[in-house]
């Protein structure tokens, strides 16, 4: 796919159906075989589609091209369980814009921290999160727990999407 500056993307905070999550994960695994390695994909997709909230990015055809799935079931932190942008849409700063919406949601809901787990050997993803302000707080056998402090301040509730022209 040839992307250019005339491409439009729409961002949302929403719920996503099992079918759409499953299709997205299967498509993402074609380029990222390590994604959810050792996880039963169908069960995982059922769980997050029913329990998680999503920051999504969609193309002009409303196709899901990126997502951050997160839980808000702990009052101390918001937990990211999955974050991915399809390979053909990378390099457009879509993750950065999705993460901005996630931080806005965290601020609006008074969550002081965002946490996630990343594979120890995935240096590229670890560096991406460090660049976004995450620090390592715990090391496990095969993964790292990373955390970012959110500065709680008065913000307006983000209420949906809108087309954003990327230049």
Automatic annotation (TrEMBL):
Residues 3-151 form the N-acetyltransferase domain. Pfam families: Acetyltransf_10 (PF13673). It comes from the Bacteria. GO terms for molecular function: acyltransferase activity, transferring groups other than amino-acyl groups. InterPro entries: Acyl_CoA_acyltransferase, GNAT_dom. The chain crosses the membrane at residues 64-86. SUPFAM superfamilies: Acyl-CoA N-acyltransferases (Nat). Keywords: Membrane, Transmembrane, Transmembrane helix. This is GCN5-related N-acetyltransferase.
